[in-house]
């Protein structure tokens, strides 16, 4: 496989010389996504403040934080923890080979450190995050009379009360602070667990002295 002659960046991109330059560059994107996910979670927690209250949070930065948090978590999961079969015409053989090599590399390190991620390896959650356009198109048009909270944040679920003409409420990237959960297209994303897994993955996968 042809490799770039050189890669220039202000950030360190070479993780393991046993991996090719392309694989190191892709792995670096996974590291950046893990770091960004942790940062977004901490920012969201800081904005929302103490728990065990009953608030709707009007901070105008919250929608962008929720969008980027979910996107970064999906990228990290896709790059580092996706060992699914070949995606036929949607994935080249080169991309598939690199993905499986990367997956096996990560799994070996996780096994060595007895690290068993649950959130980052959840295929259904990953698909809901990375294929959000397809999921929204299908789910939001499935049934009439349903209201949706999108990129919203509140202390408790009951703070989000539907109008009388709405038969029930569903959620897309909606953060429930007292539970540390993002409710997203029928899935629940536990932010406490996700932050712990991202922090552990950064240590286990990206520490040089394996």
- Cα shape: globular
Give a quick account of the main beta sheet: strands, pairing sense, barrel closure: 4 strands, mixed
**Number of E-state strands:** 6
Which spans of ≥5 residues are poorly predicted at pLDDT below 50?
Answer: none
H/E series: HHHHHEEEEEEH
Structural class: alpha/beta
Can you give the mean pLDDT?
Answer: 90
Number of domains: 1
Strand fraction band? 5-15%
Radius of gyration: 19 Å
Distance between the amino and carboxyl termini: 26 Å
- The proportion of residues forming helix, as a percent range, comes to 40-55%
The number of helical elements comes to 6
Strand order of the largest sheet: 2-4-5-6
Reconstruct the topology from this structure.
Elements: H1 21-48, H2 62-80, H3 93-112, H4 123-130, H5 132-139, E1 146-150, E2 153-154, E3 168-172, E4 174-176, E5 181-184, E6 187-190, H6 191-206
Parallel strand pairs: 1-3, 2-4
Antiparallel strand pairs: 4-5, 5-6
Helix pairs in contact: 1-2, 1-6, 2-4
Question: Main traits of this protein?
Answer:
210 residues; two-stranded parallel sheet; alpha/beta
Describe the structure.
With 210 residues, the protein is of the alpha/beta class. It has one domain (21-206). Helices cover 47% and strands 11% of the residues. It has helices at residues 21-48, 62-80, 93-112, 123-130, 132-139, 191-206; strands at residues 146-150, 153-154, 168-172, 174-176, 181-184, 187-190. Strands 2-4-5-6 form a four-stranded mixed beta sheet. The chain starts with 20 loop residues before the first helix and ends with a helix.
């Amino acid at each position: 496989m042809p490799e770039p002659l050189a890669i220039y960046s202000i950030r360190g991109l070479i993780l393991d010389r046993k991996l090719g330059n392309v694989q190191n560059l892709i792995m670096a994107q996974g590291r950046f996504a893990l770091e960004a996910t942790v940062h977004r979670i901490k920012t969201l927690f800081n904005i929302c403040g103490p728990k065990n209250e009953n608030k709707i949070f009007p901070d105008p930065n919250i929608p962008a934080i929720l969008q980027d948090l979910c996107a970064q978590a999906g990228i990290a999961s896709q790059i580092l923890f996706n060992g699914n079969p070949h995606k036929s015409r949607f994935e080249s053989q080169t991309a598939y080979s690199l993905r499986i090599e990367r997956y096996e590399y990560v799994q070996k390190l996780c096994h060595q450190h007895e690290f068993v991620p649950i959130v980052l390896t959840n295929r259904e959650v990953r698909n809901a995050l990375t294929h959000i356009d397809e999921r929204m198109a299908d789910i939001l048009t499935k049934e009439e009379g349903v209201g949706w909270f999108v990129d919203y944040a509140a202390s408790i679920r009951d703070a989000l009360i539907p109008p009388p003409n709405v038969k029930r409420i569903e959620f897309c990237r909606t953060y429930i602070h007292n539970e540390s959960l993002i409710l997203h297209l029928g899935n629940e994303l536990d932010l406490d667990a996700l932050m712990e897994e991202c922090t552990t993955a950064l240590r286990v996968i990206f520490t040089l002295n394996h």
